[in-house]
Amino acid sequence: MLQRARNAGVEKIIVTAGTVKEAEEAIKLVNTYENLFMTVGCHPTRCKEFEKDPEGPDGYYQKLLNIAKSSDKVVAIGECGLDYDRLHFCPKATQLKYFERQFDLAEETGLPMFLHNRNTGNDFMNLIQKHRHRFKNGIMHSITCTMEEMERAISLDLYLGINGCSLKTHENLEVVKKVPIEKLMLETDAPWCDIRPTHASYKHLNLSKEEELLYKPPTRKKEKFELGFMVKGRNEPCCIGQVLHVLASIRDENPEELAETIYKNTCEGFNLKHE
After folding, report:
1. What is the pLDDT of residues 140-194, one digit of tens each?
2. Which end of the chain is more exposed for a tag (fewer CB within 10 A), N or C?
3. Phi, psi at residue 203, to the nearest 5°?
């Protein structure tokens, strides 16, 4: 997987951790490979873990903080935010309480925030506005927002992460087309959020045979796994080239120039070295 990413021109990969356990596993992984980095936080659907911790919410917070401070491979607090599409995993009140607590993490570490927002009305944006002075950079990832929500995010000086889920509908494409180029980031959210034939974006996926080998490599079913092949239905970092080419097509921009600008944005947003 990492070799496929390198072949596709991916120089840095950020692993997202949404719980203490995931962060403990991720820190071992990113310390093994030079080009891997990570986030530390609690995903909105997992915020019950603050209260389930044997040492209570403060103990859980301290564990997140300790990992966040333990390595310069940690480049953001998150993935944190609000998700009202999946309240069956965690109720609204719990999400609100512990999303707000994670602004403390960002302020205490000085790290950017990697943010999640799904169908939250004004709640997410209102909390961002309330605490915006407490963190330097914020990245609202995997956006599926309306034009109005996008414009409010830009007014709050957030970067916006685009992946396959951001490009499903014609409305999505119109929103993404209008994001200021200096606020764009690309992502895969692998192993999820791939670009599919049913998506509005698919007709913009005009890859050459060479590009297809790099960004859409051959697959095998999970049951017939074969080294050197992607698992069918599983998104990978190498597929970020698909997102780039769709974005370049709908915005009528040169893919190489767009990639360079977005790479610069990403390095600045996450305080990574721009090589």
Report:
1. 999 999 999 999 999 999 999 999 999 999 999 999 999 999 999 999 999 999 9
2. C
3. -70, -15
Residue boundaries of the structural domains of the chain: 1-270
Nearest Cα neighbor of 48 from 3, 8, 87 is 87
Dihedral sign computed on CA atoms, order 119, 40, 138, 73: negative
Cis (ω within 30 of 0) for the bond into 55?
no
Q: Does pTM top 0.85 for this prediction?
A: yes
The rounded distance, in Å, linking the Cα atoms of 3 and 238 is 9
The contacts found for 53-62 with CB under 8 angstroms, 24 or more apart, are 53/20, 57/98, 57/101, 60/20, 61/101, 61/104, 61/105
Q: Domain 1-270 class?
A: alpha beta
Q: Which amino acid is at 122?
A: N
User: Which stretches does DSSP call E strand in 206-271?
Assistant: 219-220, 230-231
